[in-house]
Amino acid sequence: MAVTARVTPVRKWLAKSEPTKYPWAQFVRDGLTAWDGVRNFEARNNLRAMTLGDLVLFYHSNEGKEIVGLARVARAAYADKTSSDDWSVVDLTPVCALPKPVSLAAIKSEKALSEMALIKRSRLSVVPVTEADFVCIMHMADCPL
Which of 57, 71, 79, 93 has the fewest CB atoms below 10 angstroms from its CB? Predict the structure, then answer.
């Protein structure tokens, strides 16, 4: 009898951080962070859907407005200790800075990304990213897959 392993596909996400509060450079120095402070139910549910090993595009919001790096989920969702309510966090670890950051303007001008959740659900701090959108962003960033 042959034994086959069930492989869970790596999903892709985008998480926003204001660079004045938690910039990519600080994340790299820390090496690991609990992605806390998410206070929107849909974004919280996206955090809860993340699994170990999923990839996360790190987006500087408000100032910069660009995807600057790639992270990986190091620990799946658990209770957010910064709140007594039903919120969740995940642990993220940096993978690499993008060779060429991808600006929001560039994303909006790319027809292939017109349905990207970053644009369609712009108020959310954590959104899913389709495989096609992820490949397009990596291409725009001159980042080999």
Answer: 79
